[in-house]
Amino acid sequence: MAGETSGPRPSEQEIRMVALERKFDELLSFVQLIAKRNPDDENQRKEDDRDANNEEPEGHSNANTTPPPPTPPKPEGKDTQLDSKIDSLEEKIRLMQGLLM
């Protein structure tokens, strides 16, 4: 009959395999294209970095360049509970370090 091909028809699994192989080849080609472009991009990035180092830093011309005011000193009162906890933890750390050596 017209339109029929001779020989066995490919199975559904074979059809899927061919489709997957084509997709894989397309993906591989894309990755290779990206890999070829990457060195060019890296060279351009290095040039941009060199140019940026020679230019003045970016920012607003009215940016505040003065340092922030110093933080006020903490009150003199000690928190004995916190201090004892810190001492306890420091001792545990020293013990652990001694065990590891």
UniProtKB/TrEMBL annotation:
Residues 35-88 are annotated as: Disordered. Residues 37-59, 75-88 have a biased composition (Basic and acidic residues). This is Uncharacterized protein.
